[in-house]
Amino acid sequence: MTNRQILLAARPKGFPQDSDFQLVENPVPEPGDGQFLVQAEVLSVDPYMRGRMNDMASYAQPVQIGEVMVGESVGRVIQSRNAKFPEGTYVSGMFGWQEFAISNGESIRKIDPDVAPISTALHVLGMPGLTAYFGLFEVCQAKPGDTVVVTGAAGAVGSVVGQLAKINDCQAVGVAGSDDKINYITNDLGYDGGFNYKTTDDYYKAFKQLCPDGVDAFYDNVGGPISDAVFPLLNVGARVAICGQISQYNATEKPQGPRLLWHLIVKRATIRGFLVFDFISQYREALEKLTTWYQQGRLNCPERVTEGIENAPRAFMELLQGANTGKQLVKICPE
Amino acid sequence: MTNRQILLAARPKGFPQDSDFQLVENPVPEPGDGQFLVQAEVLSVDPYMRGRMNDMASYAQPVQIGEVMVGESVGRVIQSRNAKFPEGTYVSGMFGWQEFAISNGESIRKIDPDVAPISTALHVLGMPGLTAYFGLFEVCQAKPGDTVVVTGAAGAVGSVVGQLAKINDCQAVGVAGSDDKINYITNDLGYDGGFNYKTTDDYYKAFKQLCPDGVDAFYDNVGGPISDAVFPLLNVGARVAICGQISQYNATEKPQGPRLLWHLIVKRATIRGFLVFDFISQYREALEKLTTWYQQGRLNCPERVTEGIENAPRAFMELLQGANTGKQLVKICPE
Asked: Distance between CA B146 and CA B164 in Å, rounded?
């Protein structure tokens, strides 16, 4: 039995390509004292990983060339020398793009498969769900009656933001990259409206029609020209949460755009960037709420599942191209 | 005796010119019941006035063609039919660019000439001082030990921001447009350092040298390339106050610049635009503090005084070009 791993082979120039990744096989490691061995079942691929491929200090260290790609997965403990994590326990953690991983239990979350399918620990009941929750309620300070605009509305985070906005009696307007996605978010997730940015010429006009009372909260996952069009529509006292700027991650030159800051004076608006980790002390409370809403059937997220660790690079590149509606996952099937 | 007034004659295209203003003479008005007549002594000219000359809805209505230019002045009540404002009272209010004005007392502040020279009601102890105070303490949340960067550091607001930062035990770094201004803010106002942007090629490098521990709070009056250079140096949790964007006010096309929002994610930083009016409920408390610091000699502001209402347009245009160190005033000398 071997451990198949995906390593960072080269730093991408612009959009990643196959040759930036390398599939290797290594022996399955043995847990030492206090450690346990996890067999991964589902891997999450997320936009933030693009940043970790660059050789640039950020909020976390970059992945080094030859290292296993960073990522969270859910798996089962199959061998344990740690009494707190007996064999058979389901766990999620930053195990990387590989089939097996060793852990000492630090920063590991136990997953109860009876509460929800284990894959939900990677979206609605995991990091994307928490990111949606804190971005909407803490950063955007969304209140009932607010008009909330969400970019990347059909993605893992945006799907949840819209549903949370509706649970909170907001108007939710989403932007996504296909008609199918727009149909999905409006018909299945409860968004009040939205538009396909790939077939819309005038974003400002589209937002103006969808937000006749202006925009009170803007949850931005995308950046670039779509986001530019929201700023003139901000209401006095509006809050903008910068969660992601996926339109910029593969830029090879410094992206330029219209200067937006003067809008903030007139509108007395606030823009705040955040990371989900900033709210770690409130994770437990938020997860309890998200779990309750999930169990009530008020919160869900479609999954796009790619099979096989060897296809994780492709799944990741498709994610960056917006192929996924909902959460992009990689089902790990050891040989 | 006539009332000389400056009217808005035309909406400027780009930088204002003489022909955008018109000097007229009208009879001095008579106060009606409940009203009083003010003879203006000092007029304030401020960057915000440039925005009011445009035909664009903003936080306030634009000045209409043929109307008296908007502005605050300090003057003396010389005729009164309002018992609360007897003859001889000094008052400040939005009396406009003219020598005499009628008021019913609404939104009028009484000025005590024994506390400080009356002109200070237009800077340290008035709107610019309050703008500095709330921007620094409420919006930037400046704490002792913070490194605070201020653009437009030698202007009416920036002069006060630096002194307040030093009173609050911050490091204060300022940017201004001449060597004399930099000498002034560092030698006389207590700024720890600064640079002349007109003779500096690499703003980023200049900030990096002056702020070796990064930037915790950024008080921006200017915008454009100077401000762009601050964003990469923001510390985690930094706060940016957008008070003005004077570099953009005369733009004839939509200004472009590097996209900055992704910096906010990594730095979990907040940008907030504000108007001093947002803090009106705290004016009294703030003015008491500013007055105490002024009387202790810890807070001052140089004045650049232009003589004669007929020269107000020139004074205003020179302000937009940065001719002033400290507060630009117009001394009003009725014939």
From this structure: 12
Angle B281-B284-B286 from CA coordinates, rounded to 5°: 95
The band of A335, judged by pLDDT with boundaries at 50, 70 and 90, is very low
Question: Residue A169: left (phi > 0), alpha (psi -120 to 50), or beta?
Answer: left
CA B102 to each of CA A133, B29, B78, B91, B330: distance values in angstroms, whole numbers, following the listed order: 54, 7, 10, 12, 19
One-letter amino acid of A22: Q
For chain B, say whether A59 makes contact (Cβ under 8 Å): yes
Dist CA B6 CA B244 (whole Å): 25
Is A264 close to B271, i.e. CB distance below 8 A? Answer: yes
| Domains defined for chain B, CATH in brackets | 2-119+302-331 (3.90.180.10), 127-277 (3.40.50.720)
3-state secondary structure of A164: helix
Tell me whether A270 touches chain B (CB under 8 Å).
yes
Q: Which DSSP category does B280 fall into? A: G
Angle ∠(A324,A207,A229) on CA atoms, nearest 5:
85
Q: From CA B311, how far away is CA B331, in angstroms rounded?
A: 9
The token pair that represents B320 in the structure block: 């937009």
Q: How far apart are the first and last CA of chain A?
A: 8
**pLDDT per position as a tens digit, A198-216:** 999 999 999 999 999 999 9
CA distance A154 to A132: 12
Token pair belonging to A59: 């909020």
**Is residue B154 a contact partner of residue B174, using CB atoms and an 8 Å limit?**
yes
> Which residues on chain A are in Cβ contact (under 8 Å) with B278?
268
Q: Which structure tokens are listed for B281?
A: 């409920």
Distance from CA of A105 to the nearest CA of B (A): 27
Neighbours of A262 (CB within 10 A): 21
Put simply, the answer to whether A265 touches B258 (Cβ < 8 Å) is no
Q: What is the ipTM of this complex?
A: 0.90
Provide the Cα torsion A277, A281, A284, A287; round to 10°.
-40
CB-based contacts of A65, cutoff 8 Å, min separation 6 = A8, A9, A10, A11
List CB contacts (< 8 A) between A269 and chain B: 272-273
Segments in B102-247 forming alpha helices (H): 127-134, 156-167, 179-187, 203-210, 225-228
pLDDT in tens, B243-297: 999 888 888 888 999 999 988 998 999 999 999 999 999 999 999 999 999 999 9
Element (H, E) at B74: strand B73-80
Q: What is the DSSP string of A59-127?
A: SSPPPPTTSBPP--EEEEEEEES-TTS-TT-EEEE---SBSEEEE-STT-EEE-TTTS-GGGGGTTTSH
Please answer yes or no on whether A271 and B272 come within 8 Å at the CB atom: yes
